[in-house]
């Protein structure tokens, strides 16, 4: 089976070719430099860049895979969630291609692709469904923070989610309060490595509540009020490292402890971590330590699959198609608020 996957949910234009469970090509065109001066993604600019980048990105993916468009058996594209105008570019292009080639089109949930990305190891990634085991998944990104119990491939249930800011959004807002560049999360992670995580005690919202939900707006507010009282600290290089380390420690502690608590309650022995914030070095370190102490298996999404990419869209789309999933109607629209389901 030869499948072309398309991803344009936010600020990366990506295409990948999947052949029999493996990504034989993946191309990603990033827009970070374009949005950096605005401190975040500007939907109108993202859409313009998608329109500009889409043809060469798809062309390169096909060339790297050494196949022609007429060789494709199926297409898969991100249908949601995401920025509506950005989603529209890839989705409408995929519908047009599917119509012209007379092949089915699978609409893939972007967050669901992240959910299963820990089962796509390797460079290039391949689907490792044979080693799948029931697991508890932590999905952490700029827009989502979810705990999901996964009983089998394509069989999952949401246990908890963020009630306000996602963890990635909190990282970025803390970075902005500290005067750091965009994207802020990786910069906080980098500076925190030379800081003292116990230097400042920031709020740990909902840490001790028995549910599986998250809240990070209180942590962001805690940092803001602290800086209003101590503005000189952000200008002190050594203290800036401590501020980053302390804020990061608060976010990571909430994520790790609530994940461990849910895993014990649900009696699963495997944890997975995915999404953009899964690249955070401290989160990976702390989750690895917890799993080793509790004899849990840990599956981490590769850094390449933590950011937005078409490979995970294609590998999940192929699985959906093979399992009898219904292709979408070619007049179907995007779903910007598409729930994980």
Overview of this structure, please?
The structure is a single chain. The chain is α/β, with parallel strands linked by helices. It has two domains: 142 residues, ATPase, nucleotide binding domain (Nucleotidyltransferase, domain 5, 2-Layer Sandwich); 169 residues, 2-Layer Sandwich (Nucleotidyltransferase, domain 5), CATH 3.30.420.40. It is built from eleven helices and ten strands. The strands form two sheets. Strands 3-2-1-4-5 form a five-stranded mixed β-sheet, with helices on both faces. Helix 2 packs parallel to helix 3. The two termini are 27 Å apart. The model has no long low-confidence stretch (mean pLDDT 95).
Number of helices: 11
- What is the average of the pLDDT values? 95
Q: Summarize the main sheet.
A: 5 strands, mixed
Number of extended strands: 10
Rounded to an integer, what's the Rg over CA atoms? 20 Å
Task: Classify the beta-strand content into a percent band.
Answer: 15-25%
What proportion of the residues is helical, as a percent range? 40-55%
Second rung of CATH, namely the architecture of the largest domain: 2-Layer Sandwich
CATH superfamily assignment of the largest domain?
ATPase, nucleotide binding domain
**CATH classification class of the largest domain:** Alpha Beta
CATH topology of the largest domain: Nucleotidyltransferase, domain 5
Key words describing this protein structure:
341 residues; alpha/beta; Nucleotidyltransferase, domain 5; 2 domains; five-stranded mixed sheet; 11 helices; globular
Q: Which helices and strands occur, and which strands form pairs?
A:
Layout: E1 2-7, E2 12-19, E3 22-30, H1 32-36, H2 43-65, E4 74-80, H3 84-101, E5 105-109, H4 110-116, E6 135-140, E7 145-152, E8 155-161, H5 167-177, H6 184-192, H7 217-229, H8 237-266, E9 270-274, H9 281-294, E10 297-300, H10 303-306, H11 310-322
Parallel strand pairs: 1-4, 4-5, 6-9, 9-10
Antiparallel strand pairs: 1-2, 2-3, 6-7, 7-8
Helix pairs in contact: 2-3, 4-11, 5-6, 5-7, 5-8, 6-8, 8-9
